[in-house]
Specification:
Blueprint (H helix, E strand, L loop, with lengths): L1 E6 L10 H13 L4 E6 L10 E5 L8 H9 L2 H14 L5 E4 L13 E4 L4 H7 L2 H13 L4 E4 L2 H11 L4 E2 L13 H7 L7 E5 L5 H4 L1 H11 L6 E5 L7 H10 L5 E3 L5 H7 L2 E4 L8 H9 L3 E4 L2 H7 L5 E4 L3 H10 L1 H5 L8 H5 L3 H17 L2
Parallel strand pairs: 1-2, 1-4, 2-3, 4-5, 5-6, 6-7, 8-9, 8-11, 9-10, 11-12, 12-13
Helix pairs in contact: 1-17, 9-14
């Protein structure tokens, strides 16, 4: 089978976004027995064994802000026509699209869409006019199949479009190599004995909620041993956010970086905290749980789904006082952190083999019906 995976975002090893990770993991899983091409609107850096990669370079320095500007200038039609032209010149059996912006793509090849954005995220990212156009395309595209990565994301998609998606959980591909913690701490000027609280998310405060952790730590600082807060995802588009946090929370010891790799970032961590205000799935949460870190997650539906069956995951009420209470309740675990494998039964729910098989079955189904 010849499969095309289309990503809205650039694909590179230093990216920590869930959509990019999903595309990379799907390509790795599918390429064992099938021909796979990964296409990005931006660039594709990693050379994946057995995978063809293509970057369209439609938007220079592709990020949320440059994409928004491009779309405001009528770029949606340009995106659709460029992708359609790319597909027409090749003989793919199925196209797997990974953004609702690709809905209604004018192609004759069987296609499925994985929905990575919920209703709340869409409303925060796009104009109501653009969202209305996306919804109409979804409603009118009766041949396409839509997939959501969680029950919550599925319900959100149905509330937005009226269509029932297929639910297939994301999986985790174990490609993170933890390095020597002491060496990693020295590189970033972190004292050897300091605890490290890490938020492995984009520095998008409105969605990812990093300030909830910072407010909680200010509350409980007297009860904790010396600690450092590590915030990832601080690339150029978040330069002002980084300055704001360093100024607003200057009393806390923080390292805010665009780390060169996730290996580097996770190697610093003792405790992972993800205080997200909304997610469709939460790839960073799955990644952290699979690696066995003590993990504190906000009380949002996809995180509650994920936490079921894993005692290493603690759910907290999503505000500073709610997180502070949970940190104090788990003080022994926090002051004596360690990495422990999650329960095998829980891990099986997020198996890459299961995810790949479900998507392959879906590919074959859409090919038969078109």
């Amino acid at each position: 089978m010849k499969i095309l995976l289309v990503s809205l975002w650039s694909i590179s090893p230093d990216k920590i976004g869930g959509t990019e990770r999903f595309v990379i993991d799907m390509a790795r899983g599918l390429s064992r027995n099938h021909s796979v091409t990964v296409l990005s609107l931006g660039r594709v850096d990693p050379k994946m064994k057995g995978v063809t990669t293509e970057g369209l370079g439609l938007i220079k320095n592709l990020d949320e802000y440059s994409l928004a500007e491009f779309l405001e200038r009528g770029g949606c039609a340009k995106i659709q026509s460029t992708i359609a032209s790319f597909i027409e010149k090749r003989d793919f059996d199925v196209v797997h699209l990974n953004s609702l912006l690709f809905s209604g793509l004018p192609i004759d090849i069987p296609s499925i869409h994985t929905v990575h954005t919920n209703k709340t995220e869409l409303l925060a990212s796009f104009s109501r006019k653009m969202i209305g156009g996306i919804v109409r395309e979804v409603q009118n595209d009766g041949e396409a199949v839509y997939v959501a990565p969680s029950i919550f994301a599925g319900r959100s998609f149905k509330a937005l479009t009226g269509r029932d998606p297929v639910i297939i959980r994301h999986s985790f591909f174990p490609d993170i190599a933890l390095r020597n913690k002491m060496s990693a701490k020295r590189r970033y000027g972190i004292p050897e004995k300091n605890l490290v609280f890490c938020v492995p998310s984009r520095l998008e405060l409105e969605q990812k909620g990093q300030e909830i952790l910072l407010r909680a730590l200010k509350r409980v600082r007297p009860q904790l041993p010396p600690f450092v807060v590590v915030l990832g995802g601080s690339d150029k588009q978040y330069a002002d956010t980084r300055r704001y946090l360093l100024n607003r929370y200057h009393g806390l010891n923080m390292v805010i970086e665009a780390f060169p790799s996730k290996d580097e970032m996770y190697s610093l961590a003792d405790i992972i905290v993800l205080p997200s205000k909304t997610e469709s799935f939460g790839y960073a949460a799955l990644e952290s749980a699979m690696m066995g870190f003590p993990l504190f997650l906000s009380n949002i539906p996809p995180y509650r789904e994920m936490a079921d069956g894993n005692p290493r995951i603690t759910i907290f009420e999503n505000n500073g006082s709610g997180l502070a209470k949970k940190l104090l309740a788990h003080l022994d675990e926090i002051t004596n952190p360690g990495i422990e494998p999650p329960p095998k039964k829980w891990m099986a729910k997020f198996s890459q083999e299961i995810m790949t098989k479900k998507y392959l079955a879906l590919y074959k189904k859409v090919m038969l019906h078109q």
